[in-house]
Amino acid sequence: MTKVIALGAQPYIFPRIGLALVLLALALVIGSLPFLLSLLFVLGAIALVLSLVRPEFNFCLLAFAVPFSSLGEVEAGPFTVTATEIVVGIAAISWGLRFAARREPLVLPWVALPISLFLVVVLFSTTLAPSWPLSLKELLKWLELFLVFLVAANSFKDRRQMKLVLASLFLASLVEAFLGVYQFAAQRGPEGFVVGEGYLRAFGTFGQPNPFAGYLGLVLPLAFSLSLSALNGHRPQWAPGVAFVGVVLFAAVVMSMSRGAWLAFAISAMVMTAIWSRRAFAGLFIFAFLAAFLAFLGTVGLLPPVVTERLAVITDNFGIFDVAQVQLTPQNWAVVERMANWQAAWNMAQDAPWLGNGIGNFSEVYPDYAVMNWKNLTGHAHNYFLNILAETGIIGLGAYIVLAVSSVVYAVTAFRCIASENRPEDSSFPSDKAISLGILGILLALHTHNFFDNLYVHGMAAQVGLMLGLLAAIVHSRKQPPVEPQRI
Fold first, then answer.
1. Calpha distance 461→305 (Å, rounded)
2. Any residues with CB less than 8 A from the CB of 270 and at least 6 apart, and which?
3. What total of structural domains would you count in the chain?
4. Is the pLDDT score of 216 beyond 90?
5. How far apart are CA 229 and CA 435, in angstroms?
6. What is the predicted pLDDT for the residue at 481?
7. What ranges in 325-431 are assigned the alpha helix state H?
8. pLDDT in tens, 77-105
9. H or E element: which one contains 151?
10. What is the DSSP string of 390-415?
11. Is residue 404 part of a domain?
């Protein structure tokens, strides 16, 4: 009997010994690393285990990693590793393990095709880049977007998960907005951010006012749409909290003095309001009246001069002019600086019209095309469409426009399908209709703001992927048959 037990136990003994040896080897490797890397390794292992059990844990971490990843960065050769890259990597690995173990059907919406097409163009463009580290960094950014989109689309299985991620997204943006409000009110920041009569532009943890406002603009439309849905129906318990988040985010965007963010949210809010309902469409006229009244206050001097000045030069962003023919003043410096980058990007595109100069290499090539020795302080062209044209040529710009249009069409189609079903919604959770409309508003704000800046920075590309993945998960869940409650 003893011999039989020993032989039967052997298949179980050897794997356990192998596992013990692997763990021992890992412990020795971790012990030999510097303290910071060892700590990151251990925390990453814990996060991986948690994400295998609770997939939404990754996206909650991502919601905080995007705005606050700049507070802790690790240099790895020519690359900078932040919390965003770590979270995305853990999410991808944990989902891959779950997918291999469960063998569930893959959710792959049609909008994945234009994303993949643009990824192929970006990949090819790396072969033309004079600086491969810069090119690879941009490629990894778009790969992160695609991975987060794919993982999110296949991870959300119930409304509880979505509710937790949305709460994390609102909480992270609220903390970031409060930081910006504090900077504006206390005048804490670089002297270069001071405009008008001592007003300091809010910049949060992003180091610059424009990406700070751009990040808030990727959350504010969602808060706006959920508040809009609450006004047209009963007053759910979550409505006051979401409305409060929306008000604080809007105030922080105003305090950033980012005209691109102002215009992006204005267009986003008007389109969402017009689409939501006829009653909401009538509210557009009230909004237009308030805008006209605001302009009137500016003309009679009842608004702060700094606000009047920045509103007055919004139209300058649409005008095309020769930088060499403009007399530079403190008031028009930002507009002229942006136009100088636009002209440089256009000149780059003329020399390499079809394939560009290599993805991610705008700053590398810029010195050869600088207009009147204007420096490029941001690493991009202040217009993502021109930036892509300069880096990937007409082919790359065409692929990106297809991606941008496809994402908006996908969100519009999803919203219309959800709105036409008239399913009863859970009052304890924001309706799918409101969420899909908010994601549409986020995409509109993104593409509008990208005419004046580049929002695919500071991990915001991953957040865009999260929003698209969340929308895909909602659409897929509504195609599944409803689960019958179990009778006891």
1. 35
2. 284, 287
3. 1
4. yes
5. 9
6. 60
7. 333-351, 362-365, 384-421
8. 667 888 899 899 989 988 988 888 887 88
9. helix 132-155
10. HHHHHHHHHHHHHHHHHHHHHHHHHH
11. yes
| Residue-level pLDDT at 56 | 87
pLDDT digits (tens, 9 = 90+) for 241-265: 999 999 999 999 999 999 999 999 9
Q: Which of 197, 210, 202 is nearest to 183 (CA)?
A: 202
Task: Enumerate the H helices of 81-131 as residue ranges.
Answer: 83-102, 112-125
One-letter amino acid for residue 29 of the chain = V
Give residue 274's pLDDT.
87
Alpha-helical (H) ranges within 217-332 are 220-232, 239-256, 259-276, 278-299, 305-312
Nearest CA-CA partner of 319 in 335, 331, 306: 335
Q: For residue 187, what are the domain limits?
A: 112-276+313-322+343-479
Give the global pTM.
0.85
Of 249, 70, 258, 71, the closest CA to residue 176 belongs to 249
C-alpha–C-alpha distance, residues 384 and 367, integer Å = 19
Nearest to 256 by CA among 193, 311, 317, 318: 193
User: Rounded to whole angstroms, how far apart are CA atoms 236 and 307?
Assistant: 36
State how far the Cα of 29 lies from the Cα of 33, in Å rounded to an integer.
Answer: 7
Q: Is 476 exposed, middle or buried (0-12, 13-18, 19+ CB in 10 A)?
A: middle
Question: Does position 45 have pLDDT exceeding 80, yes or no?
Answer: no
β-strand partners of 257: none
**CA-wise closest residue to 471 among 402, 424, 412, 422:** 412
Q: How many CB atoms lie within 10 A of CB 31?
A: 8
Q: Classify residue 419 by its DSSP letter.
A: H
Assess if residue 121 is contained within a domain.
yes
Q: How many Å from the N-terminal Cα to the C-terminal Cα in the chain? A: 46
Structure tokens at 427: 């009052």
| Residue 60 structure tokens | 């909650």
Tell me which H or E stretch contains 482: none
Q: Determine the Cα angle at 378 with ends 376 and 382, to 5°.
A: 85
Asked if residue 281 is part of any domain, the answer here is: no
Is the CB of residue 457 less than 8 Å from the CB of residue 449? no
Asked if 121 and 396 count as a contact pair (C-beta separation under 8 A), the reply is yes
Is residue 215 in a domain? yes
